[in-house]
């Protein structure tokens, strides 16, 4: 069998048909789409957490900014290390 005798779907379509295929696919999608998205429960929970601005104490943030700018911020590295170790232990359980 020679390669020229093999027919593929692409070879059987004309250039005009191939150029209009994406537009036909968009039309088919648009005519059946409902413009609705169904999120999982986990996605809804993550979204609600992201939208929450009540978790940020802006007065404390501003106080930290001023302390950093003035060079007065004291960082307790042992407390940070202890918290990281505790977090890792919780993750490994």
Automatic annotation (TrEMBL):
<feature type="region of interest" description="Disordered">
    <location>
        <begin position="1"/>
        <end position="36"/>
    </location>
</feature>
<comment type="function">
    <text>Responsible for the coupling of flagellin expression to flagellar assembly by preventing expression of the flagellin genes when a component of the middle class of proteins is defective. It negatively regulates flagellar genes by inhibiting the activity of FliA by directly binding to FliA.</text>
</comment>
<dbReference type="InterPro" id="IPR031316">
    <property type="entry name" value="FlgM_C"/>
</dbReference>
<keyword id="KW-1005">Bacterial flagellum biogenesis</keyword>
<comment type="similarity">
    <text>Belongs to the FlgM family.</text>
</comment>
<keyword id="KW-0678">Repressor</keyword>
<keyword id="KW-0804">Transcription</keyword>
<keyword id="KW-0969">Cilium</keyword>
<feature type="domain" description="Anti-sigma-28 factor FlgM C-terminal">
    <location>
        <begin position="37"/>
        <end position="85"/>
    </location>
</feature>
<protein>
    <recommendedName>
        <fullName>Negative regulator of flagellin synthesis</fullName>
    </recommendedName>
</protein>
<keyword id="KW-0805">Transcription regulation</keyword>
<dbReference type="InterPro" id="IPR007412">
    <property type="entry name" value="FlgM"/>
</dbReference>
<feature type="compositionally biased region" description="Polar residues">
    <location>
        <begin position="16"/>
        <end position="36"/>
    </location>
</feature>
<dbReference type="Pfam" id="PF04316">
    <property type="entry name" value="FlgM"/>
</dbReference>
<dbReference type="InterPro" id="IPR035890">
    <property type="entry name" value="Anti-sigma-28_factor_FlgM_sf"/>
</dbReference>
<keyword id="KW-0966">Cell projection</keyword>
<keyword id="KW-0282">Flagellum</keyword>
């Amino acid at each position: 069998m020679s390669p020229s005798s093999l027919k593929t779907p692409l070879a059987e379509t004309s250039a005009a048909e191939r150029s209009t295929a994406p537009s036909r696919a968009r039309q088919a999608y648009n005519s059946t789409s409902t413009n609705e998205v169904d999120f999982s429960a986990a996605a809804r929970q993550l979204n609600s957490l992201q939208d929450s601005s009540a978790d940020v104490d802006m007065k404390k943030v501003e106080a930290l900014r001023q302390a950093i700018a003035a060079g007065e911020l004291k960082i307790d590295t042992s407390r940070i290390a202890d918290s990281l170790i505790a977090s890792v232990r919780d993750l490994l359980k």
